[in-house]
Amino acid sequence: MTKFLVLDQNVLQRKKGPLPPLLAHKSVRFVLIDTALVELVRPVKWKTTLQAGLRFLSTVPNRCHMSISVDEAVKWEMKNARPIRRELLPTAFTDLLRMAIKSSQDPQLPVDLEARISAVRDELLQNDLNAEAAKKELIRWVQFLRDNLPAGDQAVCRATGVGRGARAVIAHRMGRSAFYAFAARNSLTYSQAARLRRQNCLTWRWITLRIHHALQWLGDGGIEGANPNAVLRDLLDQDYVLLGTSFDGVLSSEVGVNAASEDMQWLTASRKTIWPGRSRP
Q1: What is the pTM of this model?
Q2: Model confidence at 270: pLDDT above 60
Q3: Rounded distance between C-alpha atoms, residue 261 and residue 253, angstroms
């Protein structure tokens, strides 16, 4: 059975990490999301980091895919009123990624490819790496919980040693009401929203994950004084977790990413596999 694994950028360069052993398994395919590309091309000398980051994947370029961003996926679902499936991996994105992987180990990137990647980098830096905007978004989610979460549940979140399970249950319940409100703001009827939630759409999972993350800040406190760059890193990590629930999981070396992934797998345990093993996008 073919598996699709979302790759956290922190596994791309580790010789003794979880990625190298999987390269020999032809049934495993690898998904890079825009977050990974953001982190690879963020430095000024991005060509060097891109070369290092794609070195292992250069041996299996035709088993690599690139997804659209989470924001674009959410917009797609709200526009089309149905769960996003194969549209997560557009051919044009995958073709660009495979071209970059194949050329990454050459001394010089082809001029047209370098220009395309530079243009993508400029857009990512402008839209995906705005730390202040990321912090404002998280503050909105924490305030939503302060305004809408029952006092008893807020006390549970603030209690010392509260279990991950308790927060996951609260995230599931609050995510449901937040999802219906979000769908209504995007002009979907209640029946359309209910059908999307029953189908475990990405938007429902995205909202649940955002609330799951905000619950930690609600319990621990300190969001107003938090370092915006730290908040941004957390939000970027959530993209790996979220897209992992659309495939067969996320491959990461970070404890927080793996813990959140386990929680989301529990929250979405009833989902159908988007791409059965015999079906390839």
Answers
A1: 0.85
A2: no
A3: 12
